[in-house]
UniProtKB/TrEMBL annotation, chain B:
Stated name of the protein: ABC transporter substrate-binding protein
Domain ABC-type glycine betaine transport system substrate-binding: from-to ranges: 41-310
Transmembrane segments: none
Upper taxonomic lineage: Bacteria, Bacillati, Actinomycetota, Actinomycetes, Kitasatosporales
Organism in which the protein naturally occurs: Streptomyces poriferorum
Keywords: Signal
Length: 267, 318
C-alpha cells in the first residue's frame, strides 16, 4: 500500500468545488450531469508541490511511492538473478560441449548469437503464446539473451587453458572429470566471470522491456512515466536501474577476486 | 525483420520442445467458447497501461473488492497483449472502448481491411461488439455514461466572437479553418473528410502536430491554427483557453467505456452488479478530471480512484 498521507488529501475532489454540480453527490448514486458549461470539470486548483510542478528530483515522489519503488526494485533483482542463474546453468554444459566436440562449437555459437540479435520486443512477443502473461516469460527471454555472452566467454576461458598445463595434470594422474573441475574450470574463471558480469549488467537493463507484459521491475515505472512525461518517476527509476547494475557488477568483481586469488599476485 | 523473426521462431521451437503449446488460444481458428458463465472469487484486472485505463482498472478493483472478490491488477502495454490473455482467463476484466474494441475484434477476425463495425450509434456498436466478443468467450457488460471519443476544440475567444457552440455552427459560419491534428486526419472519415462532408466546414489544411498534443494546442492558442483534434476526456483544455465544440451530428464513433470480462471466470451477476454501479455515476467530465489529477498533478491512480468512489458513496469511507 502506498503512503497516502502525502497524496491523499490533495486528491480529494469533495470540498471547494467552484463549478457546482458534482460535489455533494455522496449517497446519491444517480448523479446529475456533472458540471457547468465551460468549467471543463476542474474542481480544485492544482496542488503546488514538486509532483504537480513535474520536477526531476522530488521528495514527495519518493515518500508517496516508497512501497511501489521498493516492490519494483525487488522484482527487478529477482528477475535479473533468476535469469542469470538459469542462463549460467544452461551455458556451462553448452560451452563444455562446444569445447569437447569440435562439430558442436559452430551450431552452439551460431544459435546463441542469432538469439542475441532478435529484438527484445519481438522476443517477448514470440514467447508470449508459450508462457502467457507471466514472470517466466521475461525470465525465458533474458535467459536466451544471456546465453551468447556466457557461452562465448566460458568457451574462450576453457580454450585459453594452456595445453602444457593440461598435459601436466594428466601426467599427475588426473582423470577427465578431475582435470575439468580442478584445473580447467578454475583457469577459465576470469574469462567466464567477465562474461557473467556483462550478462548480468545487460540483464538489468533488459528487464525493463518486461514492462510490455507488466513484469519489468523498474521498467514498469519508466514506461508509465514516459507516457505521462513524469520526470521524477523516469529519473528515479532509471537511477535505481543504474545503481543495481553497478552494485551487481561490483559484487561479481569481488566474488571473482575471492575465487581467483592467484590472479592478483601476477599483476 | 520478417526473415529474422522466422529464424528465431524456428530456433525457439528447436530449443524448447513446447510446440504443442504454441497453438494456444490466441489463434484465429480456435473453437467457439461455449462454457457457461463462471464466478471465480479471485479476479485479475487488466490495464492497458495509460492513465485512463489505469484509473478504470483501479475503480473496477475497488468495486469488486467491495463486492467480496479478491483482485489484482496487471498493467500491460497494449491490446495485442491483453486481449489474448483475456480470452484464456489470465486476465478476467478489462476496461475497453466500445467502438474501438469492436473494430479491433473485427479486424482480428476479418482482416485489417474489413469494413469497420464501430459507429456513432451506441446501440449498433454494442450489438456488433457483443456479436464479435461472444464467440471468443468474452462478455461485454453494459456501457455507462463516460465516453472517450475524438473531439474538436477552438479558443473560447474564437467561439465567442463567431457564436460557436457546435461543429454545425462552425460549418454555417463559413470560416476557413486550419486544423491541428495527426497526419492521418486527412484520410480518416471522422476527421477532415467528415468535417467537410457532414458539417460543411471549410478545412483549409491539416497541421500535423498530433492528436491533443501540447504543440497542437499551443498552435491553436497562438492563432496559427483555428481548431484542434483532441479527446473528450482531455482535462487540460482550460489551461490553453480552449473549449470543445459539440459533435451535434454524431460524426464520432461511440467509444463508451465498457467492462469486458472473461465469461467463464467473471461472467456472473455479481461482477455485473458490482461494475454496473459505476455506469450511472461516472461521467466524461469526471473522467477528464480524474485523468488530470493523475497526468498533471501526478497523484497515484489508486488514490484518485478511491477518493472518487468514496465521494460518490460507492465504497465506504475510512
Amino acid at each position: 500500500m502506498p503512503d497516502r498521507s502525502v497524496a491523499g488529501p490533495l486528491t480529494d475532489p469533495g470540498p471547494s468545488h467552484p463549478c457546482g454540480g458534482t460535489s455533494p453527490r455522496t449517497g446519491e448514486p444517480d448523479g446529475r450531469p456533472a458540471t457547468a458549461p465551460g468549467c471543463n470539470g476542474r474542481v480544485t486548483a492544482p496542488p503546488d508541490d514538486c509532483l504537480a510542478r513535474n520536477e526531476w528530483i522530488c521528495g514527495a515522489y519518493l515518500s508517496s511511492r516508497r512501497d511501489i519503488l521498493w516492490g519494483a526494485v525487488l522484482q527487478h533483482l529477482q528477475l535479473t538473478a533468476v535469469s542469470v542463474l538459469i542462463g549460467l546453468v544452461i551455458a556451462v554444459p553448452l560451452a563444455l560441449a562446444a569445447r569437447r566436440w569440435r562439430w558442436a562449437a559452430g551450431p552452439v555459437l551460431g544459435v546463441t548469437t542469432i538469439l542475441y540479435t532478435v529484438p527484445s520486443l519481438a522476443m517477448f512477443s514470440l514467447l508470449l503464446p508459450v508462457y502467457g502473461l507471466s514472470a517466466s516469460l521475461v525470465v525465458a527471454g533474458l535467459v536466451l539473451y544471456s546465453l551468447t555472452l556466457l557461452v562465448r566467454n566460458i568457451l574462450a576461458g576453457l580454450r585459453a587453458v594452456p595445453e602444457e598445463t593440461r598435459q601436466a595434470a594428466r601426467g599427475m594422474g588426473y582423470g577427465p572429470v578431475r582435470l575439468l573441475v580442478a584445473v580447467e574450470l578454475p583457469l577459465a574463471l576470469p574469462a567466464a566471470m567477465a562474461g557473467l558480469r556483462i550478462a548480468t549488467v545487460s540483464a538489468v537493463s533488459l528487464v525493463t522491456i518486461g514492462a510490455i507484459v507488466g513484469y519489468g521491475g523498474l521498467g514498469n515505472l519508466i514506461y508509465s512515466g514516459m507516457n505521462t512525461y513524469f520526470k521524477a518517476q523516469v529519473l528515479t527509476a532509471s537511477v535505481l536501474c543504474v545503481v543495481i547494475a553497478v552494485a551487481a557488477d561490483l559484487l561479481l568483481l569481488l566474488a571473482q577476486r575471492l575465487l581467483t586469488p592467484w590472479t592478483r599476485r601476477q599483476s | 525483420m520478417r526473415a529474422r523473426h522466422t529464424a528465431a521462431v524456428t530456433l525457439l521451437l528447436m530449443l524448447a520442445p513446447v510446440s504443442a503449446c504454441t497453438t494456444g488460444p490466441t489463434l484465429e481458428n480456435q473453437e467457439e467458447v461455449t462454457a457457461p458463465p463462471g464466478d471465480s472469487k479471485h479476479l485479475t484486472i487488466g490495464s492497458a497501461g495509460f492513465t485512463e485505463s489505469d484509473l478504470l482498472a483501479q475503480m473496477y478493483a475497488l468495486l469488486l473488492d467491495r463486492a467480496g472478490y479478491s483482485t489484482e491488477i496487471i498493467s500491460v502495454t497494449n491490446r495485442e497483449i491483453y486481449e489474448p490473455a483475456l480470452e484464456n482467463g489470465q486476465i478476467d476484466v478489462v476496461p475497453e472502448y466500445a467502438a474501438t474494441f469492436a473494430d479491433w475484434l473485427n479486424a482480428k477476425k476479418n482482416g485489417a481491411d474489413a469494413t469497420p463495425v464501430g459507429s456513432p450509434d451506441l446501440a449498433t456498436t454494442m450489438k456488433a461488439l457483443r456479436a464479435l466478443a461472444a464467440p471468443r468467450g468474452l462478455t461485454v457488460l453494459d456501457p455507462g455514461r463516460a465516453v472517450d471519443q475524438n473531439a474538436f476544440a477552438v479558443t473560447s475567444a474564437y467561439a465567442a466572437e463567431h457564436h460557436l457552440k457546435s461543429l454545425s455552427d462552425l460549418g454555417r459560419s463559413g470560416l476557413p479553418v486550419r486544423l491541428a491534428a495527426g497526419d492521418e486526419c486527412v484520410q480518416r472519415p471522422y476527421c477532415a473528410p467528415g468535417l467537410k462532408k457532414t458539417y460543411g466546414i471549410d478545412i483549409t489544411g491539416v497541421d500535423p502536430k498530433g492528436v491533443g498534443t501540447t504543440q497542437a494546442k499551443q498552435a491553436v492558442q497562438s492563432g496559427r491554427d483555428q481548431m484542434v483534434l483532441t479527446t473528450t476526456t482531455d482535462a487540460t483544455l482550460d489551461d490553453f483557453g480552449l473549449v470543445l465544440l459539440a459533435d451535434d451530428k454524431h460524426l464520432q464513433n461511440a467509444d463508451y467505456l465498457v467492462p469486458v470480462v472473461n465469461r467463464s471466470r467473471a461472467g456472473s451477476e455479481g461482477v455485473r452488479t458490482a461494475l454496473g454501479k459505476l455506469n450511472t455515476v461516472l461521467t466524461t467530465k469526471d473522467l477528464a478530471r480524474l485523468n488530470e489529477q493523475v497526468d498533471s498533478w501526478r497523484r497515484l491512480p489508486e488514490d484518485v480512484a478511491r477518493t472518487y468512489l468514496r465521494s460518490h458513496g460507492l465504497i465506504p469511507g475510512d
